[in-house]
Predict the structure.
Amino acid sequence: MWSLLRVPWVRLVRSPRSMLTLLPWACIALFFGWAARGRGADDSVATYAALPLPLLAFAAVGAVLGAKSLGHAVSGLRAVGATRPAAILVHFFAAVALTVLLTALVGGAVAALAHGPSDPPLVRDVLASAGIAALGGFAYAGLFLLGATFGNGAGRSIVLAIDFAFGGSSVGAMLFPRGHVRSLFGGADVAELTSRQSSIALLVLGALFLLLAFFRTRRPAR
Amino acid sequence: MITLEEATFREAKVLCGPLSFALPAGVTAFVGDVADGTLAVLRGLGELGPRSGKVRLGNRALDPSDVAFVGLDAPLPEGLFARECVDLGAKTRKVAREDGAVLLERFGLGALGQRRVEKLTREERRAIAMVDAITSQRRVIVLTDPLSHVAQEAAPAILRALRELRKSQVFVITSVSSPGLAADYASTVVLLDRGRALAPTTTSRPLLLAAQGPVRVRIVTREPMNLLRELAREGLSTQADAGYVTVTGASLAAVARAVQHAIVHAGVPIAAVVPDGAPLAEVRAAIAGDERAAYDAAYAARMQASGAAARSATERVAHAVPLPPPEAAPDVATPAGGST
């Protein structure tokens, strides 16, 4: 299992193009934080949740899968003797870990850059923002992994578009991460759910997406 | 023994089966085209499992973990170097074998070791996957067309490895469209005809048929055009492709003489000379003819036996036709079911 885990990381490190897709979204988010420096973190983290966070998660999952479908990435490991469940779990672990780490780091950095006098103490604010961003990253990683089971990886773009189009609406907000992440960063509540309930909803959504992605990939395509 | 019990396989729109027979250890070649169901059977055995019926290894169901499978595409893990893929194969299967670079060198693929998987052609990827599967020490190795659509520099070593595996206790299952090639490396041949298996036989009959009539030989070389020029002077029917030249002639002796002459004159390095044998349709018809003859003989014997009983007017002639007895079909290798 450990030797298999190396594969997605090696793919990421050896593909400068993957790194280049990650970098712009992180830079844009940090720019928002820097532009709002001293005026309070609320607006900049809300902007981060709306645009760079999903795109950062999208790029991270794409980098782990090599911009192809989950099935294709799994077949690669299957060809060298890995069992199918192990090959799927290795990609889940790598994609989720990378997305959570990146979104949390950038989320925390944005909060730190934009921190103002009216905000809570810096450390608490940074940790809270990083935590929310990590939750959002987890849910988005699950969503994009599920999307990567459709077509030759094009499903990832489709679920991203659906999340942008309907993730903020009343029904869509329950089923997609966008509304919950926005609510946790100080936006409108989703169907009158509390922050705690939205946090749990993100965890449940992420787990559900991963479960669906697993079931869709556990058998090779006929 | 791998036993197929009423097993059906499906790949795209091709349905193959139900197949019921037993495959002995060694190399089994399913001979036919994709439309005959070769791909369906191999993908079914290597990856998907049967659509219905059972496939057993010994007395338990065949499990994907028993199998090393190479399909037509062989998608290796992207991001790794070719030699790392072979090393990873050894680690995941927990087998002790040579270093990836050494192994690739042994199979004539040393030059690919330092190339990234995504930079390799499909033929090169398949060759590397073949090397990994052949040396995987799995009980069952399923290789789709092991000598076609594969980097030609690896073909001679793969052929040698398959010939060695003929005598092993490993179950190697391959598909091939040329009966002559099947006879060259397989110990058991199953001829498929539009989703039906004609008979599991030893290779002697297809080999005999492949040696008769028109002969086709594939010459693997890095300089096919130079060789082609010389062969054209010998008056043989030729066709060049990337990495090899196919020569067709009236008899094996004539082709061998002309090819030897052309190789000497062209002065090109030759990696391998692979006989392609008689066309599949001819061999299939002949094998079907054998089956028919055996069937007719068995029917006549049964009629003769039941004739005596009919004369006593106490029994009716049985109309059921028996399977041909083993002595009537000397090429039948596996007694567990015969043709389906």
Q: What stands out?
A: Residues 312-340 of chain B have pLDDT under 50 and may be disordered. The longest strand of chain B covers residues 2-11. The two ends of chain B are 18 Å apart (CA to CA).
